[in-house]
Amino acid sequence: MAHKYSVILPTYNERKNLPVIVWLIANTFNENKLDWEIIIVDDNSPDGTQDVAKQLQKAFGQNRILLKPRAGKLGLGTAYIHGLNFVTGDFVVIMDADFSHHPKFIPQFIKLQATHNLDIVTGTRYRSSAKPALRGATAGGVHGWDLKRKLVSRGANFLADTVLNPGVSDLTGSFRLYKTPVLKDIIPRVTSRGYVFQMEIIVRARSLGYSIGEVPITFVDRIFGESKLGGDEIVQYAKGVWSLFSTV
Hints:
Pfam families: Glycos_transf_2
Cofactor: Ca(2+); Mn(2+); Mg(2+)
Catalytic activity: a di-trans,poly-cis-dolichyl phosphate + GDP-alpha-D-mannose = a di-trans,poly-cis-dolichyl beta-D-mannosyl phosphate + GDP
CATH class: Alpha Beta
Order of helices and strands: EHEHEHEHEEHEHHEEH
Oligomer: single chain
Enzyme class: transferase
Strand order of the largest sheet: 3-2-1-4-7-5-8
Shape: globular
Helix content: 40-55%
Family: Belongs to the glycosyltransferase 2 family.
Strand content: 15-25%
Number of helices: 8
């Protein structure tokens, strides 16, 4: 395949996770004979994440690993916007650096996209099969979350689905494949930041008529470091749902 895939990897205090996730991503693309690059957007991590990224550049090459740091912790949504400025691939993969998203699902994203010429493919924790159908896809799920976290996630998706009717089972997920021109078209229209950013992208994409597919994924809670989801993000999410309901 002649396509190139650009992975935007936002990081903050991911020194322990970064070497392994980068190796897994690189190995996945190389095994499938796909062209790739990883754009690491680090928000001035105090734990030495950028030092690790520079070592990875030496190991894989600066054409494969691009370090594009920012001055401070400026939020997840703006990290994607920043990373998009340096993308050279015709497809963009967005995922977390903490092993919540395993790169083994990327080939399924690519296969579903290629089969149906989809504009966006998003990972879902809440479907047992791909949409449209994809041979080899297994049921999605979550591992490592307590009951409270599961209820918050389910409740957030139920709220968004009821109010916005986006036609996607996992609106809060952040493991996705985009056609680069599609993402560049949607991004300027998005007004939310933080965790609401992912939701608004899908809602905007639907309103613009872009096609969206879903691949079931297994979401695993982070191995090293602390979750960055807190009470402020939950309140922000609820406000974001209402704002989109009022404007889209």
